[in-house]
Amino acid sequence: MMELPAAGGCLCGGVRYEITRQPFSHANCHCRSCQLATGGAYAPVMLVPTDAFSVSGPLSEYQSTGDSGNEVTRAFCSNCGTTIYARTTRVKTMRPVYAMTLDKPEAFAPELDAWVDFAQPSVRLDDRLPQYRRDLPAEAAGLPPPPGRRKK
Ligand SMILES: [Zn+2]
Ligand SMILES: [Zn+2]
């Protein structure tokens, strides 16, 4: 469990945020959009309840179509460009927050890998964690599981 409230922000310090409840899950996202948005091989994200996430500072947004086909809006610092969080048209009750922007990034404890179809060959996946070839399961985003459980 993460210590709450958990605070974080961008490289220049202009954007600050606070998380006041436990995330629904901690996930490594290997999707291509996250690779491009962060410049990393994958993005450690915390799926945070929307009403438990508050943010201030100079944010800009960029909207694109994710690998899921959903519209994904990513918010980043207008000054230094650090990607802070995203929101999707699929789930309005949850914000993926880019976990390495935490003041204590070591609080991130990955529970699963998502979009591993896009995982880079240089990345070694932790085989103790469940892997999802594409999107993570609904429960990991705080949604009820669909009737007749989806295969991963
Ligand atoms: Zn900044
Ligand atoms: Zn992603």
List keywords for this structure.
single chain; 152 residues; mainly beta; Metal Binding Protein, Guanine Nucleotide Exchange Factor, Chain A; 4-stranded mixed sheet; 3-stranded antiparallel sheet; 1 helix; 34% strand; globular; binds zinc ion
Helix content: under 10%
Number of helices: 1
Largest sheet, strands/sense/barrel: 4 strands, mixed
Describe the strand arrangement of the main beta sheet, using strand numbers.
9-4-3-10
Strand content: 25-35%
**Which kinds of small molecule does this entry bind, naming each only once?**
zinc ion
* Cα Rg: 15 Å
Give the CATH class. Mainly Beta
- What is the distance, rounded to the nearest whole angstrom, between the alpha carbons of the first and last residues? 25 Å
- What is the CATH third-level topology name? Metal Binding Protein, Guanine Nucleotide Exchange Factor, Chain A
The quaternary state of the protein chains shown equals single chain
Number of spatially distinct domains: 1
